[in-house]
Amino acid sequence: MLSIIGFVTILAIVLFLLSGKMSPIISLITIPILGALLAGFSIAEIGLFFDDGIAKVISVVIMFIFAILYFGIMQDAGLFDPIINKVIKISKGNIVAVAVGTVIIGAIAHLDGSGASTFLITIPALLPLYKRLKMNPYLLLLLVGTSASIMNMVPWAGPIGRVGSVLGMDPTELWRPLIPLQIIALILLMGLAFFLGLREKRRIEKLAVSSDQLEAAAALDVTDDDVAPTKDTTLARPKLLWVNLLLTLGLIAMLVWGILPAGFIFMIALSIALPLNYPKVDDQMDRIKAHAPNALLMAAIILAAGSFLGILGGSGMLDALATDLVTLLPAFIIPYLHLIIGFFGAPFELILNTDAYYFALLPVVEQIVTSYGVESTSAAYAMVIGNIIGTFISPFSPALWLALGLAGLEMGKHIRYSFFWIWGFSVVLLIIAVVIGIV
């Protein structure tokens, strides 16, 4: 009975998340409470389950709030703008170089872990260049989205934070083993961009674009007005570029070193960055208010997930569901279930949103395979690596709809153009992760 209630609870949450008829915060809080009451637990017991769940995610919440604020300040101050503009100027006129440069720009723009800000920076900057060179704008979306997905493995982005809350681990600890894979993935993506750039060049030539037109397009000078993303340039602090860069590099080094909790590191960095770039108190508060909605929304979702996981774990629903599923699945599949789910991670993005995948599917799979000797982190990595590359082909991604709107593109055409490249790329990364021992 307990496993049935657990299954119905998780299924109800998934259905509500997919339908969009209930926000993730409300569904993650209310439905598990109803399930626990139905299973016969008292309000006092549910309160204890809640306390346990929140205790496991509070450090993740702290890190998210201050990480989003910090990188928001760095974006405002223009830390990444010179690098992005330089890459655009170097690559203009060369189709293959533009494709490879798109990967670099996408990775830099996504250092803050926010898909919306990444697309707000990259699409207005690169779309005019793609149009002038007659390049397919869906290639722009494929390369930026995949590059951002690779960078989405950083601990202050959504997926690793969600995994940290599920496993009760510091997201920074989960991220460190993924750093070599991120580097490999970016190199491979630049190789794929080179190949797709050559293919795009041949496609353009086949469209009977004359050599004179190509030369004219290549010779066109891309002005600042063409490439600059829509943002408040009065917030930029070009004179503090090197100071901000050193501060950010120091922050990343401290995160990798692991001598201090990640949340504390971001607290310290933010307390330095704010008065450094915006000495007036009013300006500091304006910057915090500007980025607070993103920070608080992510924090609220993680806290709601902590409540959900605390209740399902403390009530025994998760254990019961995992135990009963093991009896139903063929024995030879169970130890490899995380790899199977990871293999189909990108297709899952088309039917499950991020919260459903990490808060409903991951806990069950992790509970099943760990009973067969698989480490929790190995199970989580397999599911993350297989799924995360497909982040920006998901119709459940609000940032993707923003990107489509900015570029004037269609969701269906984007999925048809990008899906198999992204799925194949995710499978290759999963295989590499197995080979180098991450999974």
From TrEMBL:
GO molecular function annotations of the record: citrate transmembrane transporter activity; gluconate transmembrane transporter activity
Citrate transporter-like domain sequence ranges: 13-386
Transmembrane segments: 29-50, 57-75, 95-126, 138-158, 178-198, 241-274, 294-313, 325-346, 379-407, 419-438
One GO cellular component, as annotated: plasma membrane
Residues forming coiled coils: none
Cleavable signal peptide: none
The keyword Transmembrane helix is annotated on this UniProt entry: yes
Bilayer topology annotation: Multi-pass membrane protein
UniProt keyword list: Membrane, Transmembrane, Transmembrane helix, Transport
Record's subcellular location: Membrane
Keyword Magnesium: no
Listed name of the protein: Citrate:proton symporter
Organism the protein comes from: Alkalihalophilus pseudofirmus
